[in-house]
Amino acid sequence: MASSSTRDLTQGPIGKTLLVFSLPILAGNVLQSLNGSVNAIWVGGYLGEAALTATANANNLLFALIGLVFGVGMAATILVAQSMGAHNLPQAKRVIGTSATLFGAASIAISILGWQLSARILDWLGTPTEAMALAEAYLRVIFLAIPLMYLFAFVSAVMRGAGDTRTPFYFLLLVVVLDTALNPLFIFGWGPVPRMGIGGSAMATLVANSISFTAMLCWLRWRRHPLWMGAGELQLFLPDARILRALIVKGLPMGAQMVMISMAMLMLMGMVNSHGVELSSAYGAALQLWTYVQMPAMAIGAACSAMAAQNVGARLWGRVDATARAGVLCNVLMTGTLILLAVVWDRQVLSLFLPAGSAALEKARHLNHIAIGSFLFFGVTFVISGVVRSTGAVVAPLVILGLALWGVRVPMAQWMQPAWGVDAIWWSFPISAGCAMLMSLAYYRWGGWRQARMLEPAEDRVATPAEVAGLPPTPVCAQPPTPDRIAPAQ
After folding, report:
1. What is the structure's pLDDT at 458?
2. Which of 126, 489, 104, 465 has the alpha carbon at shortest distance from 279?
3. Spatial separation of the C-alpha atoms in residues 110 and 262, rounded to whole Å
């Protein structure tokens, strides 16, 4: 497994390599979405619309609070991928050690702070009164699960950076199986297990992630995964100053993007909440459907980012551009197909997340028909931004996202309601997503992202394979660089 668990993404045909590499990521996204949907069916179908509204508010808040930590994980993934592309395994392990320490400490801090302030934040969001107690009960348990949930996500991300998408998928499958099986047990109780209601859904998530994360660490150690750090390498968990600086300087802007998305979604959720539980539950059901529609974009985009980063490390710029083109094409075809299916079959799908005979169903269908097209633009933007960030260019994607969300989406959703009614919220999705796509493509074409660096140039020296293996250096003849390895002038 040590030789086959990681994949060299700097070789082979671009399209085929990207597809094979992305399939486990896509399958993992499917599993996560199915897991969330099954949980939503239990909560919405058996505990009512107020419970579904509570989980929708709580999950949006959760996404916002972990955004900055997630940025550190993205930065670590890029650094690991660049190191693997340069055949520098020792540096990849140094990155993992430093980022794991930072990531773990930050997630614990978020867990403690969120547990204490969950009620106040939910009140600030304007959570409907009838859903407030349920949302707080759910969110408090979820906050206890955050360290395990996001350490699991972090380890999975850096393994993808090294070209290993299979191992994270297997243990994500374990999470989903356990979470799905434990949800009804903890919600309704059975035997010695008490009835926990909506808090039981969150408890199932905590237990499932605890078991799977522990099992994954044991598996990596047993199978001697290339990225596993044994007892003799524990010093690598002491933060390396230059890597820590890169993680913070590059990770914070990427994390800020997640926070920016979350805050915009929370603003929209507040607008929707002001129209009552019925519309809130319709929006929550649509969010479940949209999770599936965006799956190809998320999977292909994540694969493109890791693949581009490895080729940046190997300085194969022609393959970087080819990766971007292949990713955009795949996203347009796959996401476009899912959008068509989601419009044709939306009644059947949306009804799964709402109580039988709910008046919210037609509202959910209406808003879905307006907003779902935005995910076609989102897929293109996600790929382009991932490729751009693979070099360390993180500020421009942040600015583009800020302009699209806070310059277009939120103002339009708020200010156009007097003229368009609640439809202004739904139309803000495709219009702002289209603006983000056009700005991203313009920056990719004319921006200076190829000159960006994750680490300072003076310190970013690439080790040779002989150095990595601890062998004495061998003389080589100087060769002129091939065109594929020269960064084009901007």
Report:
1. 44
2. 126
3. 15
| Residue 483 tokens, joined | 């065109």
DSSP state of 409: I
What pLDDT sits at residue 460?
A: 43
0.90 surpassed by pTM: no
Q: What span, in angstroms and rounded, lies between the C-alpha atoms of 32 and 37?
A: 9
Give which of 365, 376, 481, 470 is closest to 429, Cα–Cα: 376
- Rg, Å, the chain Cα set: 23
Query: Which ranges of 48-88 does DSSP label H, i.e. alpha helix?
Result: 49-65, 67-85
The rounded distance, in Å, linking the Cα atoms of 229 and 215 is 16
- Going by C-alpha positions, the residue among 274, 293, 291 that lies closest to residue 422 is 274
Task: Lowest mean pLDDT of 314-318, 405-409, 440-444, name the range.
Answer: 314-318
Q: What angle do CA 73, 74, 76 make, to 5 degrees?
A: 65
Distance of alpha carbon 287 from alpha carbon 155, whole angstroms = 27
Tell me the CB-side half-sphere exposure of residue 305, using CA atoms within 13 A.
30
Residue 22 has a CB neighbour count (10 Å cut-off) of 25
C-alpha to C-alpha distance for 398 and 404, rounded to whole angstroms: 10
Amino acid at the residue 311: N
pLDDT average, residue stretch 461-469: 44
- CA angle centred on 59, ends 58 and 63, rounded to 5°: 120
Question: Apex CA 159: angle with CA 299 and CA 38, to 5°?
Answer: 50
The stretch 324-349 carries a mean pLDDT of 91
Q: Render the burial of 368-401: b for 16+ CB within 10 Å, e for the rest.
A: beebbbbbbbbbbbbbbbbbbbbbbbbebbbebb
The CB-side HSE value for 332 (13 A sphere, CA atoms) comes to: 9
* Least confident range of 234-248, 257-271, 440-454, 469-483: 469-483
Q: Which residue has the higher pLDDT, 212 or 481?
A: 212
Question: Which H or E element spans position 105?
Answer: helix 89-124
In whole angstroms, give the CA distance from residue 269 to residue 409.
13
Q: How far apart are CA 349 and CA 388, in angstroms?
A: 35
Closest CA to 115 of 144, 78, 86, 150: 144
> What is the tens place of the pLDDT at every residue in 279-315?
888 898 898 888 888 888 888 888 898 899 999 988 8
